[in-house]
């Protein structure tokens, strides 16, 4: 995910992968309970009150349940240790899951757009709904908004892009409930056309959001670098390590929400290989203290004083 999702938050406190997974698990089980209750209530009341919008919103809530289980599975898989087949661990499983969530949002958004277009073509086919549908839509909107704020707060605290994606999925469902509420109010007031128009607008917003998460995750899977601030911190840490005369070819890549670093460090050409190795080990220890850095690979290059080159 893009680092900008975390830019307004306090500095990362250095949460371990186990702590990240535990936070994801707690948030997601809360979401599972909320979405189960909401989807069953919305579908049942929607059928009884003749509200097609409420039934559709209940089905949308079911899509959140699918997303929740994807998050649970990804969090469990992502915290597995490295093995022979995956020497760098399984952290990118979370990135892949974020892309799945983005695709799910994209599909749901396109589905809402298509449904809204059909409704706009035949507005007379929309039946008058019972007022009970409105109360359920309002309750669903409140529950989804509270769930979104809770999940986003935890996601930014532990800097988990997967949880950020799932939190915004909850917000998309809140927007869907808002659309349903507006549509029901319009239906009760004698303006049924309001429902498909609002659904068309929000469907576009959800599809755009899904496209954003999918594209972002794709870049992370293609070894997107860390943000400039984190790279600058890593570079400064290397420069401040005793014995290092220079740093070049510093490269970073995302591994889930963690960072892998490659760097060439320059040490005095007159020292022994053992001393050069000790400096590299010290540099790795310092860089590994930076939050989110998973590993540092160094290449030691000889450095000579410029006035002694000739």
Summary keywords:
8 helices, three-stranded mixed beta sheet, 310 residues, Alpha-lytic protease prodomain-like, mainly alpha, 11% strand, disordered N terminus, 2 domains, Alpha-Beta Plaits, 65% helix, 3 strands
Could you explain the architecture of this structure?
With 310 residues, the chain is mostly helical. It folds into 2 domains: 17-222, Alpha-lytic protease prodomain-like; 228-303, 2-Layer Sandwich (Alpha-Beta Plaits). Helix content is 65%, strand content 11%. It is built from 8 helices and 3 strands, in the order αααααααββαβ. The protein has helices at 17-49, 52-78, 92-121, 132-158, 161-188, 194-221, 228-239, 273-287, and strands at residues 244-255, 258-268, 293-303. Helix 2 (52-78) runs antiparallel to helix 3, helix 3 (92-121) runs parallel beside helix 5 (161-188) and helix 4 (132-158) runs antiparallel to helix 5. The radius of gyration is 25 Å and the shape is elongated. It holds the Pfam family ZT_dimer. It is a multi-pass membrane protein.
Q: Care to count the β-strands?
A: 3
> Element order, helices and strands?
HHHHHHHEEHE
The percent range for helix content is: 55-70%
How would a textbook summarize the main sheet? 3 strands, mixed
The number of domains is: 2
CATH architecture name of the largest domain:
Up-down Bundle
Report strand %. 5-15%
InterPro entries: Cation_efflux, Cation_efflux_CTD, Cation_efflux_CTD_sf, Cation_efflux_TM, Cation_efflux_TMD_sf, CDF_Transporter
Membrane topology: Multi-pass membrane protein
Protein name: Cation efflux protein
GO molecular function: monoatomic cation transmembrane transporter activity
């Amino acid at each position: 995910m893009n680092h900008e999702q975390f830019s307004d938050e306090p500095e990362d406190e250095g949460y371990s992968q186990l702590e990240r997974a535990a936070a994801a698990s707690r948030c997601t089980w809360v979401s599972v309970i909320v979405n189960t209750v909401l989807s069953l209530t919305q579908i049942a009341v929607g059928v009884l009150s003749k509200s097609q919008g409420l039934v559709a919103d209940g089905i949308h809530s079911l899509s959140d349940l699918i997303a929740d289980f994807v998050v649970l599975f990804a969090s469990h898989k992502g915290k597995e240790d490295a093995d022979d087949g995956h020497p760098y661990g399984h952290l990118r499983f979370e990135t892949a899951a974020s892309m799945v969530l983005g695709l799910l949002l994209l599909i749901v958004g396109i589905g809402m757009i298509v449904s809204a277009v059909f409704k706009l073509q035949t507005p007379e086919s929309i039946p008058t709904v019972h007022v009970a549908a409105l109360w359920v839509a309002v309750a669903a909107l409140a529950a989804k908004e509270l769930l979104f704020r809770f999940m986003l707060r935890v996601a930014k605290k532990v800097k988990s892009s997967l949880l950020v994606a799932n939190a915004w999925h909850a917000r998309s469902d809140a927007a869907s409930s808002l659309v349903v509420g507006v549509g029901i109010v319009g239906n009760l007031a004698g303006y049924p056309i309001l429902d498909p128009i609002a659904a068309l607008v929000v469907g576009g917003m959800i599809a755009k959001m899904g496209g954003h998460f999918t594209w972002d995750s794709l870049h992370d899977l293609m070894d997107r670098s860390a943000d400039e601030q984190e790279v600058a911190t890593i570079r400064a840490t290397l420069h401040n390590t005793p014995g290092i005369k220079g740093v070049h070819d510093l490269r970073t890549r995302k591994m889930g929400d963690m960072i892998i670093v490659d760097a060439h460090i320059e040490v005095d050409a007159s020292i022994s290989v053992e001393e050069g190795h000790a400096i590299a080990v010290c540099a790795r220890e310092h860089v590994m203290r930076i939050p989110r850095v998973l590993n540092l690979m160094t290449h030691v290059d000889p450095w000579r004083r410029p006035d002694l080159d000739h």
